[in-house]
Input
Amino acid sequence: MDEEMEIHLAMEADDSIRRGLPPDEAMRRARQAFGGVQRFREEGRDARGIGPARDLSGDIRYGLRVLRRAPVFTAVAVATLALGIGANSAIFSVVNAVVLRPLPFPDTHSLVSAWDGGHSLAEFTYLRDRTRTLESVGTYLPGFGVSLSGDGEPVRLTSALVSDNFFDVLRVRAAYGRTFEAGENGVAAGPVVVLSHALWQSRYGSDPSVVGRLVEIDGVSRRVVGIAPAGLTFPSSETRLWIPLLIDPAGNRCAADDAICRSGALGTFWGSYGHQVIGRLQPGVTREQARTDVLRIAAELQAENPVWRPAMPEYVANVSVSDLQSRLVADSQRLLFILLAAVALVLLLACANVANLLVVRGAVRSREMSVRAALGAGPGRLVRQLVIENLLLAGIGGAAGLLVGVVSMPALTAMLAGSAPRLDEVRLDGGVVLFTLLLTTATGLLFGVLPARRLARANAASALSVARGGAGQGLHHRRLAAALVSGQIAIGLMLAIGAGLLVRSLARILDIDPGFATAQVVSARVNPPRARYAAAEPRRQVAREIVERLLAAPGISAAAVTTQLPFDQTVQGMAMWVDGWTTDPNRLEVLEIRGVSPDFFRTMGIDIRQGRGFTDADAGGAPVAIVSETAARRFWAGRDPVGGQVRYPWPGWITVVGVAADIRNNDLKASSQPAIYVPFAQRPQVPFTVVVRAPGDAASVLATFRSVVADVSPETPLSHERTIEALMQESVSTPRAAAALLLSFGALALILAGVGTYGLVAYGVETRRQEFAVRMAIGARPSSVVALVLREGARFMLVGVVLGVLGALAMTGAMRSLLFETAPTDPLTFVTASLLLGITALLACAVPAWRATRVDPNAALRD
Amino acid sequence: MAAPELQQGALDLLILTTLHSGALHGWAISRRIQQQSGDVLRVGQGSLYPALYRIEERGLVRASWGTSDEGRRAKFYQLSAAGRKALARESAAWRTYSGAINLVLQGAGL
Output
């Protein structure tokens, strides 16, 4: 085409020369007549582009040229899309790994869990022995911290205690060696362990000869019998080893005359909840049938063991049988889907922003569209080209978004740690890429179609007439843009309200007084090897020595021992007979039980409300106990609890000597349950936790701790070393993650809405420059011009706020389950969020409004 | 008299008419129109080439490179069969259209 132009030019010059003009004059005239070659070249090229380039590649090449010609617009649009699509990609990758992808072992559809609230080994053995619907039943206790030594630095790891058929139920074979075999849960079994693939790689360099070697775990020498296959970390993503449970219903591990050991064993068997059943349905059996089966077994268990399982209807009603995968993700599902909804809203916001940008660009590209329409492109053709351009824009944004998603995945999984299972499986895979692709296409169509149709239709009609921001088209564009910005404000408000509600809920949770001191207290679990500390006396001795040595160390003001640290270890329940309250020997009360040393209450800052605490004399004296306020209120209403009598399910009365203030145990949100404390000496369990109160640096206190324990009992490792403060922080990790994530989305939404508002108002001011100039020329005060702009801004802002409030009200059902003591319609949050958004929008309006007053009347009128 | 604005459809018709007697290159077409209209209608490059490409798109003309009388390489346009049919149709329509307008103008005494 260029060539033709040049030829035409040359011929025109030739003609002039023939008519007598000198050559250079002829050329000059010809060029002059030619006019703006460059501009025409471009328009011509564009025009040409339609015809021959009927195929897709031509459209794409043209679209890329268009985008390249407007670098600022393209950059802003791509960045906005990348953020919106990227956030969705990241959250989806988590949802994919946690909820959608099947568990990494075969035939997961026939796997079920029962007693979803946790159960003890008693339930497990009954189910295993009596089931008629499950072909195999296993159990596990997840999240059991151990310390591993030998072959390198001692290291603390998470393990799972499992039944011997655990891997068989999962139908998983060892990668090397074997998994557990029948009998390995028994008292007589030799200690063994199965290592995870990841641990085998990182610590043993993938050396197959590890199988058969001895390793030391919590002081016990165990033989490595096998390595699990790669990718298996069930039941939790941190599991690094599997250790067989000790299932000892009769206390056979104890010496014949050791009543205390025996009662401890029984107590553990019947009262240590936190185990989870995993079973495989027999072929052709439904979950409903399995549930009926388990109900029957639960009823039998209750009937045959009234002492340990008092006849409470809730016990049987609580039996549930659910699909394993659903059970695993049930707790986090709600949170994850709310996050997904939130990022979807953010993406809508981003789309609105880009659509607005396109509408504004539409005014600029009017001329180009007119030329192409004049050259024969019908509206359909123009729309197609524009849609392809927008899809191209979306595609670039989507690719950038995928990158954003991948980069933010580690941060996201770190934030969600503890709130969702299977986070180690989060990665970029085909599913995530496909999702991103689909989302990108939908996005491109969403933000592209409307502006494209408007632009094409408006310009195909008027062939070559160009409206340079004329009032008619400007108004059209402004109305569309205003609707979009109202939508943005609505979405921003919804996200802000959601974030506000979660923050309030979190604040309420953090406000809860756990009932004990959280500052300046550190704790660590002491794990004396069971082999050497099988009897009661050595245990009492080691506990006593550790506490004495700690008290003697500088800087430590109090130290004590407990068999169950709240929020750290599984709750231990004990069925007890309360004298004067219990009337039916088959209806014993279940209390949370803790064995503590005398200084426990002082160290933990727990008040003794009545009576006295424990003293050293209690160690060898008559059995005594301290009950919690809730227990006192419930079981000794109207009577004095001090002096009251309780006993275990076997003979031997225990006198209550004091009442302690209530504390929360494992769940800040749940109310306190009745609890009972007995002297550690009368219930010397291992492992036990030592708590230490010391002002000053926690690290040095823990160092002192370690050296004391190493002195007293060198073969005893420590584990779970941390401050109580950190412990409490962990317990609120889920609400904190939810609040943090929604706050970030809310902030992003606020920025996008602010930018959108600014853009809209600025555009409006730009197209009405003449009007403002005229107003000010005839004497209007600048403040009235500002008021004019702000008034218009206020109009669509109000619409946005109203829509946002309606949207937030619609969300209440979904939010309710995530909130604690906060109504989903909390007025304070609604008002604050609306004000915040309103102020942001007004500020965004303010700048263009101020600039409107700076319009030079003369210059604007001249234009 | 100021040169009247050439409507898009009118220009197409003029080009087709000019090509009726044979193939011409771009410059020659604009020259011929100027001559035939008694120098009233001057078609600049800005209007001519878009119009040429448009009717080429519609299949009314075919283009091929050749050599001009002066020995320059140039692109020559010639009517296709569809072009001839379109020309007959458009010129008939134009005559009807302009005749009707003339009648109205005469009736008003202009």
In short: Confidence is low (pLDDT under 50) at residues 49-53, 462-472 of chain A. The first strand of chain A starts at residue 111 and ends at 114.
